[in-house]
Amino acid sequence: xxxxxxxxxxxxxxxxxxxxxxxxxxxxxxxxxxxxxxxxxxxxxxxxxxxxxxxxxxxxxxxxxxxxxxxxxxxxxxxxxxxxxxxxxxxxxxxxxxxxxxxxxxxxxxxxxxxxxxxxxxxxxxxxxxxxxxxxxxxxxxxxxxxxxxxxxxxxxxxxxxxxxxxxxxxxxxxxxxxxxxxxxxxxxxxxxxxxxxxxxxxxxxxxxxxxxxxxxxxxxxxxxxxxxxxxxxxxxxxxxxxxxxxxxxxxxxxxxxxxxxxxxxxxxxxxxxxxxxxxxxxxxxxxxxxxxxxxxxxxxxxxxxxxxxxxxxxxxxxxxxxxxxxxxxxxxxxxxxxxxxxxxxxxxxxxxxxxxxxxxxxxxxxxxxxx
Length: 372
What we know:
Order of helices and strands: EHEEEEEEEEHEHHEEEEEEEEHEE
Number of helices: 5
Shape: globular
Strand content: 25-35%
């Protein structure tokens, strides 16, 4: 049976539109959520959609107030780079905040996702959560809300349309991405705790992994098995399709819908290579050797940089209850071991000219399958 393809509305410009919640979902390339239990006295003031246009991505913004304390909720698909540290709106703004005087974001678990509290880059109280591929940002515009009030808002958020939600989650990340419809320069913001940005001369060429027939860099990841995760999409970056400089492999969890692992792969020792040994950026974090993670959440966001033969790889893990530091290190080690086993198996397959499936069982009980 053919799946229904999710289609959303776009516009020629991105001027905000006053709109109802139900109608707003039709303009979103992400699952739209609405809070249904608000702190006492808090009422909705406005509800606007900024539609996708050739110049801007779709986003939704609502505002609430109790008469003296206004706050805003912004929702959008986070698809232009890996969501570094998982809390983009709480990044330290080096122009106004030193590492010493910034409030390090604090994580609170909601279901299998982490909700982060801190100060945004304008030093206003803010909170954010990344789930189902999208980002929710809550900003206190005036006055103060305690953490429990903000937690109440987020914990009560429900999707606008359950059927549409299922259709969106059944759609590959590639098909939802802005890059899939518009050729614009890639973002040059940091991709993880380690220093690595993509050149703004690059374009992104996204592919649904289910239909990808060519692999240019990091070919071993196409055949790598990660327990409870599957490869959803592959993103190629370069000045043009014949000059690819980086490939990103995007795996999604089968436990928590759209929790993810990303492998960023570059050739070694080129102009656009991931640095090795890696150098930390300017955000506060824990680090050990080539591994960095949050100071307030032992489960991530993790970044692990390693090399194999001609490639440098940055493995980025979205935090979940099971993604401990030990788990993340083992993940990177196993991916590296699997790559060596796969290459051996491919060589054996070519030598014997067998057109059959080879199964290589690993000691950590995952299985790698390679088809001839």
